[in-house]
Structure formats: C-alpha cells, structure tokens
## 1
Amino acid sequence: MELFQREAQFLSKLNHPGIPKIEPDAYFTYYPHNSNDPLHCLVMEKIEGLDLKEYITRRGSCITEKRAIQWMIQLVSILKEIHDRNFFHRDIKPSNIMIRADGQLVLIDFGTAREVTETYMSKRSEGQVTGLFSAGYSPLEQLNGQAVPQSDFFALGRTFVFLITGKHPSEFYDSYVDHLNWRDAIPSLSPIFTDFLDRLMARLPSQRPQSAKIILQELEEIYRTLYGTDPHSRMKHSASSVSDREKPNAPKGDPFAAKTTELMPKTTPPTSAPKIPSEDKKTNTGAKLDPSFVARTQQELAEFIGPMASIICQRLLNKNPTMSVTEFVQALAQKIPDPKQAEEFQKRCLK
C-alpha cells in the first residue's frame, strides 16, 4: 500500500513525455458495497505500445549500436528529470520501459521510487530501507538496502546489455571473478561505447558517472564521434517521420525502421459514442440529475464494465454536476470499449 501511494505522489509531481501522466485527483479511495475495507485506486495515462522485453522478443533480433545510443539519451533525459527532483527509480529494467508507436520511450512502474531526503539517508545508514532487487539488473548495494541515484545508472547499463545482446545479463556473469563478460557476445560494438557501458555498470557507485547530466554529455559526444551528427536532431526527425521510416524500403542500415510497424500493436482511434437522434434527446441543463436516474444508469453501466461503474459515475457528476441527461449518458458510453455495447447502453438509458 505504501508503494502504491508513493507512486501516486511521485507521478503527480512530474510532467514529462517519458513518464505516465496522472490528474491531480487520480488517487482516491472507494468503499465497495457492504465492505468496511476501502479500495485504493489510481487512474493514470494508458501507454499504448510494448515494453522493451516484449519488443525484443517479438522483434527476433537486437537493436543496433546507433539505436542503443539514441534510446539511452532518451532514457537518461527522463532520469535527469527524476533525479533533479531528488527522486530515483530503483527498478529500471526492460519490462519497465515501454515504447510508443512514435518511438518515444516511457519509464513506468514508479512504485519503487524513493525521494532522497535526510530521513531516507538516515534510514539507509541504519539499514532500515527495504532492499528491492531485480536479479541481473539491480546493483549489489540495492540488495543491501543501500540504493543511491547512481544505482539507476547501473540498472540502465544492464538493461542495454540485454537490448544489444538479447540475453539476460546474468547469463554473462562470472561469479569466480565477479565480472560481466558480455563484450565478446557482440564484438562489432565500438570500444568507446562498450567502455562507457562498463563504467555505468561499475561495482561501486563512486566508480559510475555521478549525474544524469554527465551521462548525457558523454553520450552526445560519443554519438557525434561515431556518426558525425547531433543526436537530438536525428531523434526529432525520427519521431516526426516515423511512418516514412517504417516503410518496407527503409534504409538497410537501420533494421529497426523496417520492423517497427510489425511489432507495435495495431490500435484504432477511440470510437466516439453513437449520436442520439435529436428527437430522442433529453435536456436537463442547469439542474442536478435525478438520483433515481443516476442509480439506474449506473446499474446499466455496470453490466458492461463491472463495479468501476459507480466510481466513474460519481467522478463524472463531481466534475459536471449540472450536465444534461444526454450529456451524462454519452459521456458514460465513451467508457465502454465496444461501440455496439456503447450504443446499446445509450438506448437503454435514453429510451
């Protein structure tokens, strides 16, 4: 419960395209019928796309070095936003990073995020911080409840080992010498980039880069050295012209380009609620809706979407207490994914 509440608190403080958005009133409690125990609810932005673990699996091949650097720049920019607010994530791994259809990466699952406060540092020094650990991705200090912002950099490096090799980092670990022998798995990588990744994954936090800003500067310099262009202009172009890159005749040097369309789940724009003919419309503008009508509508909605119907109805009325009957029903119909069911719901309520 504490982790759940912490996620809501954290997300409410950030506004970044690489972080799921929530509204100010997105966290609330709800008491189900005949229950003394509340349900704790959090409504957040739905990220359409795949997580990177699933992406690599469905793609059937790893990403290129060029793509890896571009993606890392995106993710470190997100981490900079988080770290600049004195938070750190603590659970970076492929399954906690999603890719939208336009190529934007999104970091998810902030239930493990912590704020770097004097209280946290005091608890950490006394061994009172829970050691959250994702095998193969989390650093040793995190296992011991001693995580610091630089722990995110270690996990980020391990994440990219997976993305460019297709293998879980633990497959490369040699416990006898306490070393990750991953470089031989992909000898075509540039030494400048492999050296950089190894520094991210250094055993001690003091041996890793000390800030996201420093990492960004190094990555940008690596990209310019290897490819002779500004990485930010390339990424802006990629995002704005993704449909062109995804055509079958995309440049052969970028295998990601030709396969993105095949890998992203096919989605269709949300279907608007069916319009009710003008002669059937009922108006009630300026006055509160009849409680008996609201109760009946809520019951009808529950048949299509389940017990969340009561919460949705109440939140809608709280935001729009004087909406008309038709506006109320049409707004609720948009919560029903199936267009035919949405139409049936409206017919029942407005007959």
## 2
Amino acid sequence: MVIAMGEASLSELLDIWVDGWASTRRYDVRSVGSFRAVHLADKSGDWEAFAADPSDEEFATLAAFVAEAPPRILTVLTEDHVRYRALAEQHGLVVLGADQELMVMDFEGKDVEEPWLNDDDLKLTTDIEDHSATVTVTTDAGVLAARGHVAVAHGYAVFDRIVTEPAFRRRGLGSFVMRALTAAMSEHDLEQGLLIASTDGQHLYHHLGWSDVSGVLMLTNPGTTEGASLSD
C-alpha cells in the first residue's frame, strides 16, 4: 500500500507512522478495536495505543484499555486538545505530554545525494538493513556525536530518534543526519517523509522544509510520568 501525501487522511498517516516507528524500534504491534497499540519493550514493558481524532465511544474503549495497567499510554493526534483533555478527565486519565507534532515532508525536488561531512574530526557510518537505515556520526576515538534512524512504511520514510549529543550541537549535525538518512533510502524512490518531533526538533524540521500536520496529545493513568516523548 502506497498512499500519496495529498490523499492520506490523518488516520492513515498515523498508521503509516506507527508502522515505521515500530519497525525502527522492533516493537510488536496489536489492535485495540480499530486502532493500533505498540508494545514498548525497551521502556515500560507495556502498551501505548494510538488514535487520530477518535469519537467519544472510541475514546472510551481506548481509555478502558489504558486503565488496565498503570504504565499504559494513549496518544491522540488532534488539534482539539480541549475536547480530549475533557474526555481524559471523564475517564480518569491525565495529560502526560502535549508539545509534540506530527510533521510531513515532500521530497520532490530535494537533494537526496549523500551529504559531505565537512569536519575532519568526525566520520559518518551508514548501516542499511532491508527497508531501514541507521546513521551515526562519531569522532575518530569512537565518541558518538549524532545519530538517527529511518524506516520505509507504505511509501513513506519514517524518521526516528534524531539526536545530537550536547557537546556537538550547533554544528549542523541534525541537518546532516537527516540528509544522510534520506540519501540512504533513495533507492526506494520515496516522495514523502513523516516524523513526530519535540518542541526543539520542530525548529530544525521547519528550517529543513517540514510542515506541521497535527498536534500530539499523550494521556495516561495518574501517577505515571515516564514515556512523554515519542522521539527518545
């Protein structure tokens, strides 16, 4: 299944992102009604469910699923945070995070050649595995400077965990990693990219030409404080 960006609904984009995100992290995926949930094996060891603008009835089903175990999370893609905050309160859930954004990029006309690392003290390593790739930038001594991951899902490139270590920031490595990941997937002839970005990441991605699609509201059970970022 390949979905063109202009034709894809928010629910379809979310499903594509979930498939790519779960693939890069090797998470198991299951269904909760008509929605998806991902097993956070390396984090809480429990499930995070995802939905785009669910109805009141659908939200109730998802809230009941989350209530079954304290670490569970419900992530809703929506611009109507007021409505879903109210529904969360009705069902005994609390807000875990509300500052991330689903973003999209049209690759048409963009440079997909492997970028040149203009720093003699750093080296690029690209590991390609089937429909995914990992890029790392390290010093000659092996100290990690920056990294990122990408996976192909339904004709989209889904980017994840784009990180520049504090000591190496403000050197353009975030942009470099994104270009290197895009180049690594160039043989798949992809036209669009998807990612979910933190507030800090959004500034970088806007600069690179990415566009906002939807706000991200993360909900959980009272007392749970871990798992507020989808990009960590």
## 3
Amino acid sequence: MNSTQAGTAPIVLMEGVRKAFRGQDVLRGVDLEVAAGETYTILGGSGSGKSVCLKHMIGLLEADAGTIRVDGRDVTHLSESAWVPVRHDFGMVFQGAALFDSLSILENVAYPLREHRRWPEDRVRARVAECLEAVGLAGIEAMLPAELSGGMRKRVGVARAIALEPRIILYDEPTTGLDPANSRRIGVLIRSLQQRLGVTSLVVTHDLELCFAVSDRIGLLRDGRIAVEGDGQAIRESTDPAMQSFLGGDEPLPAATAG
C-alpha cells in the first residue's frame, strides 16, 4: 500500500530533503511518502542517516533544503511553538527507551499525560494501566526501570509513546541491544499496535528480521537517498546492487556518521 495507490495524500511526505553536519552531507535529497495506517521501514547501515530522517519528521532537526509535510501541512520551517500541536500526532520510541531512571514505571508512562493533559489522577492512572496492558506489562506500575530487562524497558517506552493516542509512531532502532527473542516480541508489538490502533508506524533499523516482519513497505537509505523501495517481496527480489549488498551483509561503511 502507498498513498498514490490509495488515492489519498500521504500522512508524512519528504521531498528533496537535504541535511549536512559540519559540511558533511548526510541527507542528499530524500524523497519519501508514507500512507496513513501503514508501517514503513527505513532500512540502512549505521551512520546512513536513518535517525536523521525521523528527527526531521518531528521537528528536532530543520532541513537545509527540501519540503516536509505532515498530514498535508508544510512543517519544513515551523517555529518551535508551532511544532507543539503537530507533535501531538506523534509518539516516539527512542533507541535506548529513554526512561527516567529515578521515576517509577507509572510516572514514566504518565509523563506525557501530565505534560499535555489536565486529567484527574484516577484517569491518568487508568490510562497508564491501559497502555501497559497493551504492551503486555500489566501491573508493573510500582517498579523502577532498573528492575526491568532490556526488552521490558523497550516495551515501557512504547507504552509511553502511545499514551497520548498518537496517529503516528516513530521507532528509532527499537531492537538495538536486545536478544532475538525480545527482538521478535518488539516486532509482534509493532504489528499488533498498527492493527489494533490503526496507527501509522515509521521504523528505522538495520535489523533485517524486524524489517521484514513488520513492514508494509521498505526503503533502503543509501548515499543520502532512498535508493530502493518496495514491499517485502520486492525488496527480497530486488536486483539493485545496493540492496543485494545490504541483504548479503556486504554493506560498506558509509561516509556519514549521523545515525
């Protein structure tokens, strides 16, 4: 599925997006569109600029050139204050989960609710319980992050990301540091949230198993552009040398180091 086939405007669109750091080009004209309700994975090696793409989508970085649209709105050069309501559409799952070590799981998941909702305490607690149950971690509100396994911390990060009922969830290397069993659990969770909540998911990863397990469409980021794009079958069968090299584990070290 893509926005052109569906006949609707993409919920996330990047056109000709460029970004350089200290004079070194990282994104060299990224063209990308994601339809509402699909899971799109940006595949690429370490340092290829995958996370840089996500940060542009949510306004943590500003493009040097090109256009970015979210749900039809041009967000390329929004002010920080103008980004605030746009970001309400997004949930972000960070590479390291980014939990507050000194706060309980309840307080971690409740954090965005307390920041953006004026809810009574009983409603906050009920929403936290719903989110933890959704990621298979019901009843752990009183625990601290240090008491959890790496896989559990990642799932708490997902619970926090869905607390505000976002339309779009961004996953930044969600299986980094996890063993294969926990990596598969994260993949199942990404798919189940898409199916149950109807969210749009954007995943950046170099994890091929996760990529093929969760994706409706996949784009290979290489040399600062989306070099190959398609569904899982098209990607597996691609004769593009860059794609064959990546799938075969022969991807050369990229020049960029921006993640």
## 4
Amino acid sequence: MNNLAIVKIPAVRYKEETIQEITEPVVVEDKITLYLNGKKYITMVATNDSLTELGAGFFVAAGIAKRILTVTVDGTDVFVEADDVICVDGALESAGGFDPGHAESVSANDARITPDEIFAIREALNGDAWGETGGLHCTVLYHRHEQAAVFSDIGRHNTVDKAIGFMTLNGLNPAECVIGCTGRQPVGMVSKAANAGIPIIVSRAASTSAGIEAAEKSGVTLICFTRDRRFTVYAHPERISGI
C-alpha cells in the first residue's frame, strides 16, 4: 500500500480515566472513476492504491470484459481499454459493492488445497495495513500454492478486484489461483471469483444464503469462518485434501 493511502490525524484518546493527545494513522477515502473504452462507467469509493489492478479487475470480475488491453491511471481516473465487452445489468450490494448479477461456471477439476494452505492464507490476511489502521479489508492472491500478491482497500469488493486485476495483467492461470478475503461472501463477492475463473475462496468471515447458492451453482469451493485450526466449507469440499 502506498503512503498516500494512509494519513496521520490528531485525536484524543480516553483510556482508564486518563486523556492523551495522540496522532493516529487513518485510511484515506477517495472517489475513483472507471472509464471503459473511453466512456465513463462508474464512480466508486475506494482507497487510492493499486488503481491499475482495480480497473482491470473490476471489469473482469463483473464479467463485463474478457480481455484487458490497457489500463491508464490519471489521478483518480482509471481508463480501461478492453475487448469482448458485454452489457451487464448489475446492482449495488448492501455494502456498496457492485454485484454483476451473474456468475460464470468454473472449470478447474484439478484445483486442490490443503488445510495447512487454508490456514496459511488466513494468516496472510493479518497484514500490516490492518494492524496499523484497523480500517482496511484485505485480499490475498495465491497462485500455484504460493502467495502472489496482497491488496488492501476500505471496500472488500475492491480488494478482490485488485487481486483479480493483478492475476489478469500478469497472465496467471485462474484455475491455479485461490483468493483469500477478510470480508463476508455474499453473492456479489462469490460471483467475482467465478467470473474470473478462480475456483477457491477462503474467507475469515461469513457468507450468505445467496452467496452459498452462487458458489454451489458456479462450481466455486467456498470456505468461510477460517480460524485457528478450523474452517467451514459451504460448497464443493472435494477440492480440499482430506475431506
């Protein structure tokens, strides 16, 4: 995360009947506008960080574009050029994220993950940015059983878009990837992974009934409530070794 995404803010702390003047690290909230093939598409609230990945990942995760040609960032404007663009009738979810309204089927019959890898992904979500601010979500991208990238943002949806954008821009095979998330997994979050072709989601939070249904129908392995040596699998446990 770049230094522009976190600022120092003066505050007053009350603790055990004492008052202390302090300076706290606080996440910067920005409005980012995405353009697709020269036309304004959406303005979203996000952290001004990894905007190239955010632009690419948003359109792939929503199933709007299959191939990203270029991404150019100018301040808080992100210009994406893409091929194979389709019209998607999406909607905003309860937390303000974009729900594409559909989820592609994932074909990754050989994808596997071990319980130890699930716990390693969970541990990787405890990043420095969260520890410093307490106000950021995080997504970890695993590729071929190794950590490939970590992204933070004030919006959980944005972190997934950034991870998918990184995967897309670096030509990684989605069937060999796993996404680990701090946030809960409603239908919009599960659909992002499915549309990008990622077969496994690991979350430390909950899902919803619609999220679970989307995972089951699209073929995504959905692992939630990942804690110290335990987790709950809601869909397609056959990809987990030993289950």
